[in-house]
Structures are given as C-alpha cells and as structure tokens.
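Hello support,

Our group uses your service weekly, and this is the first time we've seen a run hang past the timeout. The protein is Prephenate dehydrogenase. I'm not sure whether the cause is the sequence or the server load. Input pasted verbatim:
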Amino acid sequence: MEMKKTTIAVIGVGLIGGSIALSMRRDPNIRVVGYDVRQDCLDKALTLGVIHAGTTDLQTAVREANVIFLASPVEQIFATLHLLTELDLQEDVIVTDVGSTKSNIVAQALEVIPEHVTFIGGHPMAGSHKSGVEAASDRLMENAYYVLTPAPGTSKEKIERLTEMLSLTRAKVVHMDANTHDQVVGAVSHFPHVLASALVNLVAGYDDENAWHARLAAGGFRDITRIASSNPRMWRDVLLQNRDHILKIANDWASALQNVVTLVEKGDPDGIEHFFKTARDFRDGLPERKAGALPPLNDLYIDIPDHPGEIGRITTLLGARQINITNLQIRETREDIYGALRITFQSQEELEKGEELLRYFDYNVYKR
Ligand SMILES: NC(=O)c1ccc[n+]([C@@H]2O[C@H](COP(=O)([O-])OP(=O)(O)OC[C@H]3O[C@@H](n4cnc5c(N)ncnc54)[C@H](O)[C@@H]3O)[C@@H](O)[C@H]2O)c1
Ligand SMILES: O=C(O)C(=O)C[C@]1(C(=O)O)C=C[C@@H](O)C=C1
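Update from on-call engineer: The timeout came from a worker crash unrelated to the input. Re-ran successfully.
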C-alpha cells in the first residue's frame, strides 16, 4: 500500500523558504508546494528543483498542507497570518514561521489563528547576506541552531511532530520563549547588522573625501562588514519589530564604546590590551558550527563572476599549491546572476588553505 504523502506549504520561496523546501525534499514522502507573490521566484524554484509545485494562489498552496512554513519577510508574515484565517486549512495543520524576530509574530498568531490550527514560532540561526531562491541550499541549516518558541500550552505532540520534521534540515532544534529569543538574537544577530552598516556608512563618508578608503579596505574591514551586504528591507523590518531590545543594546553599546574612548584618552595600555584580550578569549571560545554530531563539511562556496576561464583559474591556483579537492560543482549558472562554485576539499586543513588563498586573490568565498 502506498504511504500517504505529507504536504508542506512554503510561503515565500526565497533563501530561507527555499532552503527549508530543499531539506524537506530529502524525505520522498514529503511533497513541497511553494507560494510566492512573485511568479519569477516560483519559476526559478521549479527550475532548480526546490519545490514540487508552485502557485501564486494562497488557498491552493495551503489547502492540503499538513505544515505551513511562513518564510516571507517579517512584515509579510503578519499579513499572511491574517489571510490564513479566511482560508480552508487542514484540521490538524501546524503553522510555523522562520522570521528573525519572534515576540510580535507569536503574539499576533495567537490572537488571530483559529483554534484548530497550531502555531509554533521558529527561527533558524543560519542564513546569508544573499537573498533569493538561487542562494538556497539543503545544507544551509546543517549543524546550526533552530529556535522554536512554542507558546505555553502548545500541544506537545505537535511540537514533537514539527521538531521531527525539522530534523531534515540537520539543524539542532532548541526551545525558548519569544522574548528571550529576541533579546539574545538582538545582541548576536540584529545589532551586529546595525554595527556593520554603520561602519560601512562611516567609511563611505570618509571615502567621499579620500578614495583610498575603499581601495585599502582589506580583510579586517571586509570580514566585519560582510553582513552589511544583506537585504535592507529585511533588516528594516527586523529593527522595527525588535525595537525595545535594539534600543537597550544600542545604549549598552554606546557605554561600551565610551569605555574604550576613555582608555584611549587616558593612554591606558593595560586597559586597552585587556579590552582586546577579553574579546579575543570570548570569540575564540565560541562553539564551532562544524562541531556538531555530523561530520564536518569541507565545502567552500565561491562567487564566480561570469568571465570565461574563472573556474580554470581557481583550480589552477589550488593545484599550484597542491591543495587537494575531491569534488567541484557549479551551483548556479544563469545569465542574470553570478555563478557559485562549490568545492569540496579533502580535509578541513586543505579547506582552510584554499579559503585563505582564494580570499587573497579577491574571491568572495564562504562556508555553510
Ligand atoms: N536571510 C537570512 O539570513 C535569514 C535567516 C533566518 C531567518 N530569516 C528570515 O527569513 C525570512 C525570509 O528571508 P529570506 O532571506 O529568505 O528572504 P528572501 O528575500 O530570500 O525571500 C523572501 C521571499 O518571500 C517572497 N515574498 C514577499 N512577500 C511575500 C508575501 N506577502 N507572501 C509570500 N511571499 C512573499 C519574496 O518574493 C521572496 O521570494 C525573513 O522573515 C527573515 O527574517 C532570514
Ligand atoms: O550569515 C549571515 O549573513 C547572517 O546574517 C545570518 C543571520 C545572522 O547570523 O545574523 C541573519 C539573520 C538571521 O535571522 C539568522 C542568521
């Protein structure tokens, strides 16, 4: 007898929705239906094999769904929650979201969602400064934390069902209340995006006066500001939704900066060194994502400009330094976007050597 398929609806088939869809597709008994306001996003998702079917009609997308993932920008998640109240849904459906903020979304969902629907807030702590389904990957969330923020009283069985389904992402699912999530993630994700963009804007102003700024911006500036290339609208929404925590963190940040200014004004070498040392010790002690239960990934992703000969140049550079690779895959080749090359190295050590080398030659490289 054929097993009944589980249907997943992904609302917003971009970077995160697409990555969820790809992970869910690991299970042959899951059928993934994508909904997006943009037909071109659905077309790309179908071409890339991210979803089984796509529609711009929300009712069609959700009618058969057992689990609905809301994966649009945060402001649109609110709008979709409202729309869902007017649609036919399965009796035991689970609705979850992937929004970067949680308190307001969870509060809104509890207010509007009908009783037969279970809402469980969610947020995968993995992503990229890139947007769109073409950047989606079934490995994006591997070994990352995936936070669920079930409201008190949520059915344990439904939480377990969603948790089991999320094991397909290979992320580590953890639970916390929405406010704790917003405070912690405000500090480790939201506010860093503010800092990165503020620093870039400051330097851009200096660069207007003296164009050497952009030219001399090397590894340090690029490392700390990578996330300033993220989607401005997404971060606009995040800041507005996490207002109180952001304001508190910004206040603490201003005091922290003032402390350094005072040390510099006083010319206090021990204080300055201590400032850098405490930061280094905490940073070096951060748990590494690769240290999960799964074997480490030796994959490196490289953005390749659409110039002839770029892939040959990359493999020649690696070969000349005897850096061994075991696999090479062109992830996306379309006229309208850059290609992304995935290189699998023989070992973690070779990956690190390759990464350093390619960064030196100005390639935009990243690990997942
Ligand atoms: N980018 C990250 O690093 C990251 C990480 C974790 C969570 N998130 C959260 O994931 C969500 C999606 O972010 P993303 O980076 O995948 O963005 P994205 O721009 O890559 O994808 C968003 C998709 O939603 C679609 N969309 C817009 N309005 C819609 C609507 N009303 N209904 C349905 N679809 C709609 C867009 O067309 C697009 O395809 C956001 O809520 C964000 O806070 C992002
Ligand atoms: O890696 C990045 O580019 C990200 O910004 C990912 C990141 C973050 O770590 O801050 C951004 C937003 C999220 O909601 C979760 C993860």
